[in-house]
Automatic annotation (TrEMBL):
Keywords from the named record: Membrane, Transmembrane, Transmembrane helix
Predominant location category: membrane
One GO location term (cellular component): membrane
Keyword Amino-acid biosynthesis belongs to the record: no
Name the record gives this protein: RDD domain containing protein
Residue ranges of every copy of the RDD domain listed in the record: 31-149
Segments traversing the membrane: 38-65, 71-90, 111-136
The keyword Transit peptide is annotated on this UniProt entry: no
Subcellular location: Membrane
UniProt membrane topology term: Multi-pass membrane protein
Top-level taxonomic group: Bacteria
Amino acid sequence: MSNLGQFDRVAVSNAPYLPANLPPAAFSGVLMRRVAAFFLDFILVSIFSIAIWFALALLTFGLSVLLLPPIFPFVAFFYNGLTVSGPNMATPGMRAMDLELRTVDGQRVPFLIAAAHAVLFYFSTMFMPIFLVALVTDGKRCLHDILAGVIMTRRPA
């Protein structure tokens, strides 16, 4: 049995890939909050990427600017993997928007699944119509959530 937080144990759906004991309040407003969380996290990852790029440029006397691949994907991979698999189960943007990411059985997301979820998400941003899947799925899950086996919910009060 998993601990799904402080939500009352109320059935939401009969879908086999959703925890059956989450109330509708766990999914209310999740889509709009996810969009806002993405923009906050995108800004943070960009700041970290620029800082690392400048630090490497200074340390290598400018040679890294010519030789290194783009740093943003690597920073995003570790940023999402470390923050989502950490004790808060959310990136700083998700925490600011009162969201958390869990596996569909309610457990904490391991690092590799959290990082793979981020890769799938950034890949999905190249094909924006894929996000329309969230409008018709139970639990407002995006395609990258389904593929990674995770679910985004509001934080329990």
